[in-house]
Write a structure and sequence with these properties.
Layout lengths: L8 E3 L2 H8 L3 H10 L3 H8 L4 H11 L4 H9 L5 E4 L1 H12 L5 E4 L6 H7 L8 E4 H4 L6 H11 L7 E4 L2 H9 L3 E4 L3 H11 L3
Parallel strand pairs: 3-4, 5-6
Antiparallel strand pairs: 1-2
Helix pairs in contact: 1-2, 4-5
Amino acid sequence: MFDLGGVFIDWNPRYLYRKLFLGDDEGMERFLANVTTSTWNRQMDGGKPFADAIAELKREHPHHAELIDAYWERWPEMLGEVNPETAQIVRDVRRRGLRVFALSDWSAETFPHARELARELALFEDIQISGEIRLTKPDAHAFEHATRRFGIDPHTTFFVDDIAANVEAARAAGFSALQFTDAQTLRGWLTELGVL
């Protein structure tokens, strides 16, 4: 079971906002730290409609209205490439005859863009998106939901995520879990587990 953003596929709002701030990296970082924050983005990952979240944020920061609108209107420009080494690991795990799933915190409204742009997402048998079920990691209920949905036993399933809190939550739920740093380390860990 794989996380997506930061593990399988690259996503970063800076890919878009560097174009909009035109070399003003300090201004861009201030905007991302104080306006379209990761905490704000997590609301959409949890199922809040983008229209509501954008409208609320524009009321709080009216002088940034156009930049805030871009977060929705130009969202696909924040999406980077699929990590080819991680995608190859997924293929190799499948070749071993194992089932492969994804468990990701992602807005239900933007995930269709990712499916269009990243065909490798079809490698997964099923994908649980937090925005669809309104449960984000590291909430234990997100892992319980995935266990039921995928029909898996945590004690015979590995999970990889780039966020430490999610890895700890997965371990607490009974999964073997690794915090992702790079594909080479992941491949070594899965080899030790006997998966590869």
